Amino acid sequence: MKKAMIAPLLPLALSLALGGCSLAPVYERPPSPVAATWPSGPSYKAEAVADNTVPAADIRWRDFFADASLREVIGLALANNRDLRVSTLNIEKARAQYGIERAALVPHISAGASESAAHTPATLTPIGATQTTREYSVGLGVAAYELDFFGRVRNLSEAALQQYLGTEEARRAQQIGLVAEVASDYLTLVADQERLALAQSTLQSQQVTYELSQRRFRAGVTSGLDMYEAQTSVEAARFDVAFYTTAVALDQNGLALVVGAPVPAALLPSGPSISVTKLTEIPAGLPSDLLQRRPDVREAERSLRAANANIGAARAAFFPSISLTTAVGTASANLAGLFKSGSMAWSFIPQINLPIFDGGVNRANLAIAKVDRAILVASYEKAIQIAFREVSDALAQRGTLELRLASQQALVAASLKSYRVYDARYKQGADSYLNALISQRALYAAQQNLITAQLSELTNLVTVYKVLGGGWQQDGAVLASATGAK
């Protein structure tokens, strides 16, 4: 009896052992549409990095950022940001979709038990008496399992796998952007706090000068012109205090939105400046590294691989499809006889579907699959070009930032000396307030520009780290990479 039960399943087992061919094109990575080296010129600083320097993409964000409060704020954002949460849920959705497609590679076996009963009136029976018949059955069955001789099911599974892996890359790219955005917003808040403190200090200083000019005017020592010029300086400083007070509040609101939760007051910046990173250099490497380091580029390649597999599935639609439906079990007219000798029952129903005329549907689907792949090739190349542009821009800014910052610091020092001389001359009555006012405004502008230059230097470090693919590691631990799956 056991041999009889196994016999109907032999064709199914044989089909599983046979490997079908795949009609998908052999995947080849498109050539890189960018130069093999980064741009060079007066705006770029020569790279001189030791061989043992860790690439930016391998530097964990907790190791990159030096400020403890900033690290905590980034951690809050990774836990609470809604956009990142959506990306994580998209991974779960794609994983489930891949599971559905992969399940089609194996037969779905189900067990069932049934009873059927029929009552026939006497007028319809040959013996002229009522009859009640019953039938009991128990068995295992496989319904419409497709024999994947031409790789249609495997290619659909491969496409789903690449889409799933692409969502993981999308999440990593989302995290890189989030880490950089939180750091940039945090640094902007620091800079606006410094601008506010500078405006408040200037207001206090100009208020003293304004009161001095009022006393001199009342004493008849000077004309009202000095007093009015001092007043304009006071009001300009008061305007800036109000403006930067609002700017700080807006920065805090923006930071809370990016973080996805209120930022505790203890984690907000309180000092005049912060140290973003302890690293002195961030190696740029070579443009070819972007293919392995930037998740957005890898996501584009995953989509391209999925489109390549879809071509194979579309080609397979031109060939016959074979499906098997089989069942094996026992059947009996009474429940007690279900498992007795001679109750064996089985069915084997192979089915072949040969496309003859479909009005051009299969040909159109194949054309769509090929166009989709061409579109994704262009998208992949554009992703590389965007990455190359972003890194080049960041390196161009980094090449001159040190010079700009040093020049601005020297300008502030010179402006401060000039202002002190003119201010002392005015207070001693040796000069009018106009020269002191002009010197003071030049100093104030130089100090504001110095804050901007310092902010540019810090945000450039964050930008270089971001565009080189750094910051995707979660909580300092390297995420389990699924790229080895295929």
Task: Report what the structure shows.
This protein has helices spanning 2-6, 10-17, 61-64, 68-80, 82-103, 152-218, 224-259, 290-293, 295-316, 361-427, 433-467, and strands at 109-120, 131-147, 321-332, 344-353. It is of the alpha+beta class. It has a four-stranded antiparallel sheet with strand order 1-2-3-4. The longest helix is centred in the middle third of the chain and has 67 residues, at 152-218. 33% of the residues are buried.
Name some characteristics of this structure.
disordered C terminus, four-stranded antiparallel sheet, alpha+beta, 486 residues, elongated, 58% helix, single chain, 11 helices
How many helices?
Answer: 11
The end-to-end span amounts to: 44 Å
- Summing up helix and strand content along with how strands pair, one would put the structural category as alpha+beta
Shape: elongated
How would you state the average pLDDT, rounded? 82
* Number of E strands: 4
**Low-pLDDT segments:** 1-19, 476-486
Going across the major beta sheet, what is the strand order?
A: 1-2-3-4
Major β-sheet, in short? 4 strands, antiparallel
How large is the radius of gyration? 38 Å
Quaternary structure type: single chain
Element-level helix/strand string: HHHHHEEHHHHEEHH
Give the % helix.
55-70%
Strand content: 5-15%
